[in-house]
Design goal:
The protein has a two-stranded parallel ribbon. It contains 27 helices and 2 strands. It is an all-alpha fold and 855 residues long. Helix content is 75%, strand content 0%. Helix 1 packs antiparallel against helix 25 and helix 6 packs antiparallel against helix 10.
Length: 855
């Protein structure tokens, strides 16, 4: 019944939802990529009821009972028989063999229990009458046996072991009774949590739909943000695509403009350095000539005629030829023509022209923004209309009214459950007391046995004869017989309880709990034409009036168990196809149409005008590549004088020092100082001019190296870049515009797809329905009731069955504990002192011996 109610609950939700025309999307995402910043996720719904509760340590006992039932009833679930019963085609007269074959294990156990119920009172009655006739151990006389002590020990140990086994069964009974009572008390909480989860399920569904609709604003805001940033997104995209073809060319032209300025500076330095060198070299030549004249006049001194000085004077006279300049600047051509040509080139500000090209190119994003203002406004209006259309499609579903009606159904169900639970708790107290009385009765019996064993063992004396046994030992025997008597009186009643609970609990476990767990029950219900002879699939026929759709109870339950949405679980696409109603192309086509009107014109971009190009050509015609840089470099690499003047002066001083004092020595020292002064004041400045000239010439040489090729390549690259802009910019604009449009549309495709996926897999996720069904069948019926019930009959049945051997051993053992009225007596000499002692030794009157002696 619980299974049927759960299925009706599921069908009620699905059927009511469909009847109201619920719009629930389905289908997997079409795009695996998620746009940046658009990560939608429904708010989590928290439910109180968890899955099947843990049974804890008692679960081991439940599994033990399950294994016992599997041994007793190993047959598979009788699917064919159940189908016949559902179809009302089961004939007890013809099909009883199937039932007997399936129930044979339970029937055999039930028959054995019935025999126990019938025979135990009869046996107990016969046993009682037999003992009243001094038979069956009723005679208070114990005959001597050689193995008597051994038998007593065996009987005591056997009874003790059996009592322990009975005690274990009683413990099972107490545990099962307490567990069942505890779980019954928790049933109200279980029912409340499930009903609360169902209410949460119903209440959250409209909220989830509202949340989905509200996320359109997020998508629209992201699209509007991109539309407002069209300058950065589309304009920069076009700019970036053109940049590799344009920027390097403009950078080369800018570098060339800088090179022209540097060339002018170098030419000016060369021109200035040449003039300085020519004038300076002339002054240097005059100064050196004057020094040579002064030295020649000094060498005409009479002292040079002396033999010791003549050689020195001759050496000095021969070295005077070294005091001369070493360069010939007249062979270096002037650079006035090149300088004038460069100055003419610089009259056109190439740097300014290049900056204009940069600005024209970098203004592309601004131009894009200015040319798309109207398009952006139109697209925003279309976005508003798309949002309205999506809201209209979703609002066509009167889901709130549907859920309100179903909420009333849940309220009625709650009222019924609460009323039933009150009745259940009322009768549960009687059940608990009855089971407690059964356990206590068995406990009383086993306590009698334990007391009998305790008293009999503790009060037993080897020296006591059967007629002289102590009071404690005799009390132990009485306890044992009391346990036997109670066993005979009540064990058949206990067996009736065991048999009934066994047959009911075993069948419920095998026919409901196990097939529900392995879903055989759902497979039975999914049998074609079972519940309706005209419908192949009952669910699809009930929901869609299309019984050929493969919609099964097992599939619906499995999907709900996995927390899938009602749309997927009940295959509602057969009634309301969300993919058609929320067609992405339908909503994005209007946006595409607006963007198709977008016309971006960037044809007026000029990287460098004709004046700039002519300026580059004029720079190439300056003639820097025709200058004889080798002549310049060779000449400026020479030293200014043929000899180092400082070294010459030092040598002259060193030569004059050995001379005797006089005019000659003085003149030589004076001229040495003049030479040093010339070097300091004239040679060093000229050397600096020579260095400047060298650097300038080398700079010009580097500039002129491959100058024409560079200029030709720059002009060619410029023409190529300008042609690329002129002929290819339209394709670049189209490609970048398409990527930009696809990004905008991608937001809405992602949103619409998320709407489908959310309503398919997350909205109205029916796990609470499956949980409620599990709570009714698996938790309440099977875990709360059937498992403890089966453990109860298993423990009580075990204890009851062991009462039979226990009472046998108890009767046997009581003979060794109770005080007898008579005993066997043998002569010690004849029997080797193995018999009982004579009674007169202990002052005990033995009726048997007395009668023998009288005869």
């Amino acid at each position: 019944m619980a299974l049927i109610l759960g299925c009706l609950l599921l069908l009620g939700l699905g059927g009511k939802t469909i009847s109201a025309g619920k719009t629930v999307p389905a289908g997997p995402p079409s795009s695996a990529q998620t746009p940046d910043g658009l990560h939608f996720d429904l708010p989590a719904v928290n439910y109180e009821t968890s899955g099947s509760p843990s049974t804890g340590s008692i679960g081991v006992l439940f599994r033990m009972v399950h294994n016992f039932l599997h041994v007793v009833q190993p047959h598979d679930f009788p699917e064919d028989t159940v189908r016949k019963i559902i179809q009302k085609k089961f004939d007890p007269l013809e099909d009883y063999e199937e039932v007997v074959h399936y129930e044979i294990g339970l029937i055999v156990c039930a028959v054995l229990g019935l025999l126990f119920v019938i025979l135990m009172p009869l046996v107990g009655c016969c046993f009682c009458m037999c003992r009243c006739c001094n038979h069956c151990g009723g005679e208070m006389h114990q005959r001597q046996k050689k193995n008597g002590p051994y038998l007593k020990k065996c009987f005591a140990i056997s009874l003790l072991v059996i009592c322990i086994l009975i005690s274990i069964g009683i413990i099972y009974g107490f545990v099962a009774n307490h567990h069942l009572r505890t779980k019954i008390r928790r049933t109200q909480k279980l029912a409340d949590s499930n009903l609360k989860d169902l209410r949460t399920f119903l209440n959250e569904t409209p909220a989830q739909i509202d949340y989905i609709l509200s996320q359109y604003n997020t998508t629209r805001e992201r699209a509007v943000l991109d539309l407002n940033n069209i300058k950065l997104l589309l304009g920069d995209g076009i700019h970036t695509r053109l940049k590799p073809n344009v920027i390097p060319v403009l950078d080369d032209i800018k570098a060339m403009a800088t090179a022209i300025k540097e060339t002018k500076e170098s030419l000016e330095k060369v021109n200035s350095s040449l003039e300085d060198l020519k004038s300076g070299s002339a002054r240097l030549n005059t100064s050196l000539s004057n020094v040579k004249t002064e030295l020649e006049d000094a060498l005409n001194d009479p002292m040079c005629s002396e033999q010791m000085v003549t050689a020195t004077c001759n050496d000095i006279r021969q070295s005077l030829g070294q005091l001369d300049i070493n360069i010939n600047l007249d062979q270096l051509p002037p650079v006035h023509d090149q300088l004038n040509s460069v100055n003419k080139v610089l009259k056109t500000n190439l740097t300014d022209l290049v900056e204009r090209g940069y600005k024209s190119f970098n203004d592309i994003p601004e131009m894009v923004q200015n040319q798309t203002k109207n398009i952006v406004s139109d697209v925003k209006r279309v976005l508003d209309s798309v949002g309205s259309n999506i809201s209209n499609v979703t609002n066509q579903v009167p889901i709130q009214d549907t859920l309100s009606n179903f909420m009333g159904y849940i309220n009625d169900t709650e009222t019924s459950i609460n009323h039933g639970l009150l009745t259940l708790e009322k009768y549960e107290s009687y059940r608990w007391l009855g089971c407690l009385a059964v356990c206590c009765l068995l406990t009383l019996i086993v306590i009698f046995y334990y007391l009998g064993l305790l008293c009999g063992t503790c009060g037993y004396s080897k020296n006591a004869t059967p007629t002289s046994r102590g009071c404690v030992s005799n009390t132990g025997g009485i306890f044992l017989m009391a346990g036997v008597g109670i066993s005979f009186l009540f064990c058949w009643i206990l067996m009736i309880i065991v048999a009934l609970t066994f047959f009911i609990g075993g069948n419920v476990e095998k026919l409901v709990c196990e097939p529900y767990e392995n879903r055989k029950l759902f497979q039975i219900l999914d049998t074609p034409y079972l519940l309706n002879e005209e419908w192949q699939y009952y669910l699809s026929g009930l929901i869609f009036q299309k019984p050929d759709i493969n919609l099964t109870f097992e599939k619906v339950y499995s999907d709900c168990k996995e927390n899938k949405g009602i749309y997927t679980s009940l295959q509602l696409e057969n009634r309301f196809n969300v993919s058609e109603r929320l067609n992405i192309q339908e909503y994005t086509q209007d946006i595409n149409n607006e963007f198709e009107h977008m016309n971006i014109n960037l044809d007026n971009i000029v990287l460098l005008d004709d004046a700039g190009k002519q300026n580059l050509k004029d720079f190439g015609a300056v003639g820097l590549d025709q200058m004889n840089y080798t002549t310049y470099l060779v000449e400026v690499s020479k030293s200014l004088t043929k000899v180092n003047l400082v070294s010459f002066a030092d040598k002259l001083v060193a030569t004059a020092n050995p001379l005797p004092p006089g005019n000659l020595k003085t003149s030589l020292n004076v001229q040495a100082q003049n030479i040093k002064r010339i070097h300091q004041q004239e040679v060093i400045p000229l050397e600096q001019s020579m260095s400047t000239l060298n650097q300038s010439i080398r700079a010009l040489q580097r500039t002129s190296n491959g100058l024409m090729e560079k200029l030709s390549e720059i002009i060619l690259s410029l023409d190529s870049a300008q042609a690329f802009i002129r002929y290819n910019i339209s394709s670049v604009i189209i490609e970048e515009s398409k990527a930009y449009v696809n990004t905008i549309i991608g937001y809405f495709e992602h949103y619409i797809q998320w709407v489908k996926d959310s309503i398919t897999d997350k909205i109205a996720a029916c796990k609470p329905v499956a949980t409620a069904l599990d709570s009714a069948v698996d938790v309440f019926l099977c875990s709360y009731i059937v498992d403890p019930l089966n453990l109860f009959w298993f423990g009580i049945g075990k204890a009851t069955v062991f009462l039979l051997p226990a009472l046998i051993f108890a009767v046997k053992l009581a003979k060794y504990y109770r005080r007898m009225d008579s005993e066997d007596v043998y002569d010690d000499m004849k029997n080797g002192n193995n018999g009982y002692h004579k009674d007169h030794l202990y002052g005990i009157q033995n009726p048997v011996m007395t009668s023998t002696m009288e005869h």
